[in-house]
Amino acid sequence: MAQSPQRSRLKQFVHANFSPAPLYPLKGIWYFTSHRYLWPLLQGRLLPLTLLSTAVLVILFLTAYLPLVAFLALFHVTKGSAWVNATFFILGVGNLLIALLFEALFVDNTQVDIFDAVVVAEGYEHLVKSRRPVSDDINQSDPVKRLGAREKGAKFAPFSFRQIIEFIFLLPLNFVPFV
């Protein structure tokens, strides 16, 4: 049975304009909670990240939020939009500061180990074997234990050029007025 042209256009519109991308963080959280072998890798990182995030956001909201709302209120016609834009701007700056501080202070090779463990768990050992040995013991249920020491160093660049440019260019998008 052929679809009507309107239904076909509607389907094209939905596929072109709506993405499952907002669901990816939720899928990641679900994957993390349902795969126990990842828990020890992140256990030592979650508490410091939570404390750091809370401290940075509380300090930013207590010191910079109201002055920013007052400044934005000068340029926004709608009164509520200054509050909304200031909220997102403070959250964006907080994200920047948290990412910089966390990567400078807490990140090590844990991210590489998590990535390699997930790739091995999904059955793509051949992708990891070019960088580190992987045990062929398929009966081993813990993919982290199947990973050997890294032969070639994992290049983790916390302050890469790409990341710095991304922060610089994307942060001003918060000044676009909410209507």
From TrEMBL:
Membrane among keywords: yes
Q: Does the keyword Transmembrane helix apply?
A: yes
**Keywords (A to Z) from UniProt:** Membrane, Transmembrane, Transmembrane helix
Instruction: Kindly list the residue ranges recorded as spanning the membrane.
Output: 46-76, 82-102
Q: Gene Ontology cellular component?
A: ascospore wall; lipid droplet; prospore membrane
How is this protein named in the record?
Answer: Uncharacterized protein
Organism annotation: Hortaea werneckii
